[in-house]
Write a structure and sequence with these properties.
- The protein has 454 residues and is mainly alpha-helical.
- 70% of the residues lie in helices and 0% in strands.
């Protein structure tokens, strides 16, 4: 298999290939992994029982995946990576703002996820934590350097393998002893429940900045509906399954999050325990491949207006190696306090990503109706300009509006306190950014149209 030739460039029709059905397996496989399990465990750890935990998982995933699936449908239509599309909303230079946020997201996910796979090497091969993290990410680097096609193929086969193994794990998890009334909808604090929903929705929405990267090679005639459905089902089925599994394991195993990898494997005798560990390791490697690939795309998109960088095999390898090395360093530092790092990371990510996803979707589906000048997206002096101050103002205003509704370790807004800890910032942000950006953009379009008619 050859190394992928394209990076952030437009994918011409003669290079389009693949089946829209592959979107199901790539997003199903990407979520059959231990980090997703721990997300469910984090929701349970807030104080919900199993019944309420499952309800939070279903609600958060079913709502959050809607936005991601609509982003995915942009790929076949435009034939370019997800984040470079932001230039059409924020301007060629202004788009660096969400790009920096997304780069931090990728780096954060890799740093938090890698130690979960490294535990396999550390515990069962007698490796040091540092060596285990390095080895885990070296394997990831080999996969991601080859790019799009190999990532799709790997996730396809991993989906089948992981699906079989996690069926067995789920059956065992359902037999674990759990506290009384775990499956009853006993009274629960609204704030706690909604905070759990927010964590789950964040997990879904965090795929939005790179979901179109894995649909951009599909033929242009691929319908929005088919792209949406296969992406949505892959995300929701896998995430709901893994998150619910996390709820069950957190309820049945004391301090499960403290050593999630080994504790899951300990449910089985040899050799099944080794098989479970290998699936956990492969899950970390495959999802980190998506994150390194996305970080590479975002980095190239960020520097391209200033350097006019042309990516070949060597520059691809150098950039991806540098990203992987930096993330490996951070993963070693993050290994000691996973749950605290995880919770803080997910909270901050949510508040910063919501304005971008709202602006991007409204612009694509309601303002420009999917019609973009692709050449201008790559032109510093093109029609989209260096900065779109309306989009940038909407972004910062939305973040300000979110603040009273925020509930995280470092800060809790007044409205969140009044609602018993509920975090409604993401919902408020979605509605506010969507409405403000739509009104400003359509008014601007109306002014331009009037001038043209006159």
């Amino acid at each position: 298999m050859e190394v992928e030739q394209k990076s952030i460039e437009f994918i011409p029709e003669n290079m389009r290939h693949g089946s829209v059905k592959s979107l199901f397996t790539i997003w199903f496989g990407a979520n059959m992994q231990i980090f997703a399990v721990l997300t469910g465990a984090a929701a349970y750890s807030l104080g919900l029982n199993i019944a309420w935990g499952i309800f939070a998982v279903l609600l958060g995933n079913c709502v959050g995946a809607i936005f991601v699936a609509y982003h995915s449908a942009q790929g076949p239509k435009l034939g370019i990576p997800q984040m470079i599309q932001s230039r059409a909303q924020f301007g060629v230079i202004g788009a660096i703002l969400p790009l920096i946020v997304v780069l931090f997201m990728y780096i954060g996910y890799i740093a938090l996820t890698t130690p979960l796979g490294a535990q396999v090497f550390q515990s069962h091969l007698g490796m040091s934590l540092t060596a285990a993290n390095i080895l885990c990410n070296l394997i990831t680097l080999v996969l991601v350097v080859y790019g799009y096609d190999l990532i799709h193929k790997t996730e396809k086969y991993f989906s089948l393998i992981a699906g079989i193994i996690f069926v067995v794990v789920t059956v065992v998890a359902l037999r674990l002893p759990v506290p009384a009334d775990s499956y009853s909808f006993i009274p629960v604090k609204f704030g706690v429940f909604w905070l759990a929903v927010s964590i789950i929705a964040t997990f879904q929405i965090s795929y939005a900045p790179y979901v179109a990267d894995y649909s951009r090679y599909l033929p242009k005639e691929t319908t929005t509906l088919s792209t949406f459905v296969y992406t949505y089902l892959g995300l929701v089925i896998a995430c709901c399954w893994m998150h619910i599994l996390g709820v069950l394991l957190a309820a049945g195993i004391k301090d499960y999050a403290s050593n999630a990898t080994d504790l899951m494997a300990s449910l089985f005798n040899y050799p099944m325990s080794v098989v479970v560990l290998l699936v956990i390791l492969l899950g970390v490697i495959t999802v980190n491949a998506l994150n390194v690939y996305g970080a590479f795309m975002s980095f190239v998109t960020t520097v391209e207006p200033f350097t006019k960088i042309r990516v070949n095999k060597m520059t691809r390898l150098i950039i991806m190696t540098a990203i992987t090395a930096f993330c490996t360093y951070l993963s070693i530092a993050a290994s000691s306090n996973f749950m605290a790092n995880f919770t803080n990371f997910m909270s901050i990510l949510l508040y910063l990503m919501i304005p971008w996803t709202a602006i991007n979707l409204v612009d694509f589906y309601f303002v420009k109706h999917g019609e973009y000048d692709i050449d201008a997206i790559f032109d510093l002096n093109g029609r989209y300009g260096k900065f779109n101050w309306k989009a940038l103002a909407t972004y910062f205003l939305t973040f300000a509006v979110e603040c009273p509704f925020v509930n995280c370790t470092y800060y809790q807004g007044a409205v969140s306190k009044a609602l018993g800890g509920a975090d409604l910032a993401w919902l408020v942000g979605l509605f506010f950014a969507s409405i403000v950006y739509y009104v400003w953009s359509t008014r601007a379009c109306g002014v331009v149209a009037s001038k043209e008619l006159s």
